[in-house]
Design a protein that fits this description.
There is one protein chain. By secondary structure, the protein is mainly β.
């Protein structure tokens, strides 16, 4: 490995926040704290890959894995919006307003973050294999 390449991927551990309800959802950060992305037009930063909450006695700890968009190799499982129509393999996916992904609207202000890589497609509520890229460099569409 190169002396200046510090990691082979952009997947980070976060231990201060309960993200157990956000697995597969896009997130943004405010003062370093992750929260569900709440905009269809403001690019998200990452996706919750795994989240665990443990309580032993009176101590609660969190163990979250967050992948930074544009720095995740391969496919990841992303949550499809409850309002999405049937998604097919290869369809473009855009951010929804609750951290989920939905069908590309085809026009208007939106942020395209990836494509469906699920051979059988997906429907509303599914966790779906997707290829994600950085929305700031590839998918921001303002019209």
């Amino acid at each position: 490995m190169s002396s200046i390449l510090s990691k082979g991927n952009a997947i980070f551990v976060e231990t201060a926040t309960d993200l157990s309800a956000l697995i597969g959802k896009l997130v943004t950060f405010s003062a370093g704290v992750p929260a569900a992305s709440a905009s269809a037009t403001v690019p998200a930063v990452g996706i919750v890959l795994d989240a665990r909450k443990r309580t032993v006695g009176s101590t609660t700890t969190y163990d979250n894995s967050i992948g930074i968009l544009g720095g995740i190799p391969g496919t990841v499982r992303a949550k499809i919006s409850s309002t999405a129509t049937a998604i097919k393999f290869g369809d473009a996916l855009q951010q929804s307003t609750d951290g989920t992904l939905t069908n590309d609207a085809g026009s208007g202000a939106r942020v395209i973050v990836g494509i469906c890589a699920e051979l059988n497609g997906a429907v509303a509520g599914d966790l779906c294999d997707v290829v994600l890229w950085s929305p700031n460099t590839r998918g921001t569409i303002i019209s």
